[in-house]
Specification:
Layout (H helix, E strand, L loop, with lengths): L1 E4 L4 E5 L6 H4 L6 E5 L5 E4 L4 E7 L2 E5 L5 E5 L12 E3 L6 E2 L4 E5 L1 H6 L6 E5 L7 E2 L6 E2 L4 E5 L1
Length: 149
Amino acid sequence: MTTVSSPVSGRAIALDDVPDPVFAGAMVGPGVAVDPPRARTVAVAPVDGVLVSVHPHAFVVVDNEGHGVLVHLGIDTVQLNGEGFALLAAKGDMVTRGQPVVRWDPAAVEESGKSPVCPVIALEATVDVLSRLATGSEVAAGDTLFDWK
């Protein structure tokens, strides 16, 4: 079993409440989202593993069980072309849970007209393999969002 931690602090919300039909419909995969405070912060690795994809607005970590976890920093933030984001790790890096990956500013994302809500997605999974989905509560970066059986 893999425990997936929150990459940012904030309020854990159901994917249904994400303002994007692809994430809200779990088309990318099941998971939880976090609505972060509007202050400059750092997104951290949700699991131990290797960074297989790293962009200013999103990254994927694959753990030693082959579970891929997508962290998407905001909605439609790819359109910001990296502005307001700073990479702290690179593709191929081994990371540990809680290790900083991207520095970003949710307030600046919101000021640009984008949502700073952060989906945390279990890639290539089905909702029935997830348990303990944290929603409706405040979480700190590193707190458990869900378990992946």
